Amino acid sequence: MKDIVSKTILTSAKGQLDDYTHSLNPYAGCAFGCKYCYVRQLPVSLYREEEWGTWVDIKTNAAQILKKDLIKARKKGPVYIFMSSSTDPYQPLEAKTQLTRSLLETMLEETPDFLFVQTRSPLVKRDIDLFKKFGGKIRISMTIETDKEEIRKAFSPSAPPIQARMAALREITEAGIPTQATIAPLLPCSREFPKKLKNLASRVVLDDFWMGDGSGGRRTERMGVYEIYQQMGMEKWFNPTAYKVVLKMLQEELGEIGISKEGFKPDIK
Ligand code: SF4
């Protein structure tokens, strides 16, 4: 864990995120260390001696530079922000640093046209009071890749339990804030999964390694994710068509389901 000083905090959004104008990462590194995390293969992780999941840098001056970056970006057109693309903005550390909270406060002074918050941490519910002030120009997305805790533990043992994520998401939805249950990347799940998602969020989005890793699944293979499926005897699930079975179950129970990049689009009114 260390403090770093950044020159800019808003980064141009590219590739899978190009429906957004910018991404915003309050931290570098991530304590959740998911085994399928594509950031493991990016320079931020590759050029670091410590293993992904064991380090977090705190961008201490993020709030000061965000206002300046926002003013500059808004002069060029609408600003749609994805927070975050290469970390989780609600790191365990965030409970103490309140860095992400300070960014939300800054964004309420210089409000972007849309803010998408992507997390898998129940800590996000702490900021319900601020989310309400965005007047609908926000969506809070909670990753729920599976409903099975033993599967979650196999792929992301340091990430928060599924039940706690579901409870936090329900609380945010009930507070009247636009939300999203994000099944991404889809992991082996039970037949009851669609029922458990009912009334949990304003929308549900499904993605898998082949549609969503930005390389047609090659990046995921390089990370040894298939070996985890093998160890669990669940090889059948590691398949580019497996999502179709789950999609059908979800549609029967929940109606419309967003798919991959299309599902993640910003809400532009
Ligand atoms: S929470 Fe997100 S950024 Fe962190 S390790 Fe998992 S996938 Fe990567």
UniProtKB/TrEMBL annotation:
SUPFAM superfamilies: Radical SAM enzymes. Coiled coil: none annotated. Gene3D superfamilies: 3.80.30.30. One of its GO terms (molecular function) is catalytic activity. Keywords: Iron, Iron-sulfur, Metal-binding. SMART domains: Elp3. PROSITE patterns: RADICAL_SAM. InterPro entries: Elp3/MiaA/NifB-like_rSAM (IPR006638), MJ0683-like (IPR040086), rSAM (IPR007197), rSAM_sf (IPR058240). Transmembrane segments: none annotated. This is Radical SAM protein.
